Amino acid sequence: MNIPSLKEHVSAEEWQLRCDLAACYRLVAAYGWSDLVFTHVTARIPGPEHHFLINPYGLMFDEITASSLVKVDQDCNKLSDSPFPVNPAGFVIHSAIHQVRDDAGCVLHTHSRAGVAVSAQQGGVLPISQQSTFVLSSLAYHEYEGVALRDEEKPRLQADLGTANYLMLRNHGLLTVGKTIPDAFLHMYTFENTCRIQIDAQAGGPLVHVNPNILSGIAGVMKTATAGMGAALAWPALLRKLERMDPSYKT
To answer: CA 164 to CA 43: how far, in whole Å?
Structure first.
């Protein structure tokens, strides 16, 4: 696709956000978490206006570029001239979270096979892997109310999420909240692997659960494991991976 660059038409801060969000979409596709064109990753543009970036509806995640991302307001009205449509219905979940979580710089939602499978299990995420301990330290659940199209569901979604960074949408999929795009991505990487490991382990016989005492203080353990940098430690390496695959995400 021949999409004119917006680099000279937006602030340097917004352009960097666009590049990181486009990278996130490409990585979601590369790791096999996308569901054709039917999920979203949103990022808040810094400032008092409550403006966001969302994917152009109808593009595959591996087609998304920094310039094709669409700027919208809290109601998903387009704020910039774009030839691409957006999906207001798909923004319902995201707008609900951005509305009440000032720390939600990025919201990432998937319908992955393993994620939906675990979301349908009565026990939800089980403490059976190191990855699960990170998720369980900040996990919430939201019961399925049908396709999330109605604003009336927002208060219940907001209440269920609370201050958690991982949300399991029952019978639906996974969602992560991050202060930054790299944070939300790393959370989803951990969440997705937790679910994949659980499905694999359940096929193999009786399970050994992690000692509950280990779950306490896990945030400090994660900080040590990432040298205090959080997702910022892995993000440059992920961008180098994209550079080798296809650098067009940043156009």
So the answer is: 18
Handedness of CA 208, 196, 165, 224 (dihedral sign): positive
Q: Is the pTM of this model over 0.90?
A: yes
Secondary structure of 110-173 in HEC code, one letter for each residue? ECCHHHHHHHCCCCCCCCCCHHHHHHHCCEEEECCCCCCCCHHHHHHHHHHHCCCCEEEECCCE
Does domain 12-250 fall under CATH 3.40.225.10? My reply is yes
Dump pLDDT digits (tens) for 118-157. Answer: 999 999 999 999 999 999 999 999 999 998 888 899 999 9
For residue 188, the tally of other CB atoms under 10 A from its CB is: 27
Q: How far apart are CA 143 and CA 114, in angstroms?
A: 18
CA atoms within 13 A on the CB side of 49: 10
Listed residue (74, 111, 93) closest to 161, CA to CA: 93
Within 10 A of 47 (CB to CB), how many other CB atoms are there? 10
Q: In angstroms, what is the C-alpha Rg of the chain?
A: 18
- Per-residue pLDDT tens over the stretch 43-89: 999 988 899 999 999 999 999 999 999 999 999 999 988 888 998 88
Output the six-digit token pair for 33.
């978490």
List the domain boundaries for the chain: 12-250
Single-letter residue type at 223: K
Give the Cβ contact number of residue 233 at 10 Å.
Answer: 14
